[in-house]
Amino acid sequence: MNKLFFIAMVLIVSATSCAKKDLTPFIASDAINFIDTNQVAYEYSFLGNPNPDHVYELPVRIVGNVADHDRTFNAVAVKDSATNAPDELYEILGGYVKAGQFRGFLRVKLKMAPQLATSKVSLRLKLASSADFTAGTNENSTFIIRWTGQVVIPSWSIFRLYFTTAASTNAYNLIVFTTGLKTLSAGEHARLGIPAAQSLATAFGDYVKQWNLDHPNDILKHNDGTLAGQAIVPLYYTRSKYD
Question: What is the tens place of the pLDDT at every residue in 26-45?
């Protein structure tokens, strides 16, 4: 019995030793995923942007290890029902991850066109494997970008307290151009505070006042809304300069 037990143990140890020698380590490539794929899409408006294009940097994260050198990756356009942007309205510039970083960015150039004044286009992007990365999980490897040149005037309830009493496309465009402010909800107003809101309104008012001084035959007017055709009258401006 002891002899048989000894022989069995020798066979087990030998088999285990051979199995270990035959094993090769599994080395997975670092992967890359989009961040915030729970949101439906990213939307960009050319409102307030006088340039013909805009480069958006879409954030990504690494699944794996950092490296001691910069790395690159790419993405492709998915030609499905979610993509209606013509090829000439975008350019995928490629992505990068800096040395020592777990996060990087995919750069995409969005282009303005006359038809975007009344429409919106969308583009579904899919991460592609590269020499540095493999594409991540299916649910995190695609993302949709939408962009437009449409002007959609937001609620005027708080704008009318600081900028001008009536809403119009011209007035709204001027607010965005002079202040960068695209919405002014109750929450945003609380975050800004009254002094900051007044300061922004003064920048808008000073622009309107100065323009009208420099262009007496072409003063700034409401082009639509309840005061269409009438002058845009700012509520805040530097009174010591313009009164």
Answer: 345 788 999 876 656 788 88
Any domain includes 11: no
Buried-exposed string 41-75: b where 16+ CB fall within 10 A, e elsewhere: eeeebbebeeeeeeebebebbbbeeeeeeebebeb
Copy the structure tokens of residue 187: 């929450």
Question: Partners of 144 in the beta sheet?
Answer: 124
Domain that holds residue 193: 159-242
CA 169 to chain centre: 24
169-184: burial string, b at 16+ Cβ within 10 Å, e else: ebbbebbbebbebeeb
* The two structure tokens encoding residue 150: 């449409």
Is 79 in a helix, a strand, or coil?
coil
